[in-house]
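Notes, p. 3: input format for complexes.
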Amino acid sequence: NSKECYNDWAIPWPIKGKKKFTVAVEGNIGSGKSTFLQYFKKCKNVEVIPEPVHLWKDVQGHNTLDLMYKDSHRWSLTFQSYVQLTMLKIHQQWVKAPVKLIERSIYSAKYCFVENLHKSGRMPSVDYALLSEWFDWIQKNTDINVDLIVYIRASPAICQERIKHRNRKEELEVPLEYLQSLHQLHEDWLIHQTHFKTPAPVLVLDGNKDLSDLEIDFEKRKEEILCGYN
Ligand code: TTP
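Output follows (230 residues plus thymidine-5'-triphosphate):
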């Protein structure tokens, strides 16, 4: 039980005596979130939970990520409802370490991706309404709390370069315009807070830097990011 696990750690619990300090790393596709996770994986007080892209690519044999990119009008509800489920599971996942570091959150899936699909006409309004009903219910009835958001802010052109370079087959056709619109939604949410409230304070990192230079910033901001558990 959680009391026994508490004894495994010499350090006290970070907040309110019980909860783990939950950090979500956010940023556009290709912004450098995985590099961030790789870096913090090495820290002993951190448990890193990467995004379950592999699950989205194999739902009982169906590649829902691929379906969504091939025909978003037909498949984006299918895909985004599974993303929402897998994100909810991650929010609910108990970790042993004092700091839980997650890649993205249920919030960016809804506020950036679902919003983008709907706004651009790729997702029918009825599908958007259904996902919103689910999201609102989850928000009211479950614990999807995040304590800090780290926003890796990178220009859409740089993201596109990195996407090309990593060569994930489902993403080869992602147009710049798609990344620009997703970028704007991240900015609206995390910087301007125009449509949606951010669920936690936001620490912004310059994702336009070379990934090796970005690591220097990770090191510099480590104490803030890990709430002193570095
Ligand atoms: P990202 O979550 O942006 O992950 P990434 O691997 O691109 O991150 P980075 O390069 O910064 O390390 O996206 C993974 C894929 O899933 C991408 O093709 C976008 C897609 N996606 C959606 O379409 N909808 C969603 O709600 C989410 C969370 C991802």
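The mean pLDDT is 91.
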